[in-house]
Structures are given as structure tokens and as C-alpha cells.
Amino acid sequence: MKTIIYMVRHGESPYNEGNERTRGLTPKGKIDIEKVTKLLIGEGIDIIISSPYTRAILSVEGLAEHLKLDIKVFEDLRERHFASYIIENAELMSSIRESFNDPNYTLSGGESNAACQKRAISVLKPILKEHRGKKIVVGTHGLVMTLMMNHFDPAFGLEFLNQLKKPDIYKMQFEDLELEEVTRIWNA
Length: 188
Fold this sequence. Notes:
The chain has about 190 residues and is of the alpha/beta class. The protein has a domain at about 75-130 and about 145-180. About 40% of the residues lie in helices and about 20% in strands. The protein contains six helices and six strands; from the N terminus they run E-H-E-H-E-H-H-E-H-H-E-E. The chain has a six-stranded mixed sheet. A hairpin with a 2-residue loop joins strand 5 and strand 6 (about 180-185). The chain is globular. The mean pLDDT is about 95. GO terms for molecular function: phosphatase activity. It comes from Paenibacillus prosopidis. This is 2,3-bisphosphoglycerate-dependent phosphoglycerate mutase. One of its GO terms (cellular component) is cytoplasm.
């Protein structure tokens, strides 16, 4: 019995608006998310889950409204926490690179790739088991999405993360907990 997970990376989000939890979408992000809804509306989605961050919820909200489904929010699907202090983009990119070389690497007060992957998979695996044979949308973020996909196939790493778009959609087909196929369905 096939279970399908649609990983929906959130649309473009303004970095200067609110904090990590409350940042919304840019005007371009909002337009792109309408396309996400159109792409997924005919897929026979049964369940929609999301990170608690506003930009992830907004990225699947239109689909949920069209399908008359609730969005189940899971705190442990949030994006990886990088540090206890504000970091510049160059330091962030360097930290991300190092995290893929050493999954336990972290900046002070931050979270490692290993810890982030473990908490996200602790949500995803039970969902795969409980909703076997269903089609599930996950509103997510680039790094945590990469780490969840990497758990099932180590080919999904830094290079994959670096080529992701905002938004982006990947369809993952499972047989039980075995990942059989991954297809990118975002085409913009």
C-alpha cells in the first residue's frame, strides 16, 4: 500500500518582518502559493500537516481551505534553530555546510542537523504508519525538509538543499517506511 508525502517548502518570506515564527510571505510568495494550491488540488490529498511557523502554514492554507481540511500543526516540524544569537548570512551558510560534514556540529545555543532530523522524523514516521495508503501534504522549510528526506535517502544533502526554490514541492512515494521514489512537481 503506497503512502504519498508531498513536501511543500514555504513560499518566499521577508527576512525583515517579524521573527522566525511569525514571518509571513512576500507578495511574490503569496502568488506562488496560489500555484502550489492549483498543482495539488487534484492530487486526492487526505491530510495536511505543517510546521508551526506562519510562512509554512500560509503555504498550505489555501489548499486546506479548498479541500475543507484542517491543518495539523506539529511543533517538531519547525525549522532548525541555528544559534542563540543573530547570525549573518555568510556565517549561516558556513554553519550549514559544516553541519552536512558533521551532523552533530552546531553554533552556540543552536541545534545540530542530527538533533533537528531526529525530532522531525519523530513526527513523520508515526504519520506514515498511522496514515498508511493516504496522501499527505507537509508544509515545511528547506533545511528540515532536506533532513527528513535525507533520513530515507542520504542522496538528499547539501547539494539538494542549495538547489531548492521557494516554494518547492517534492512528492515522496513510500511502501510502508521504505522510500521508493521522489519526484519534483514544482515546475516554476
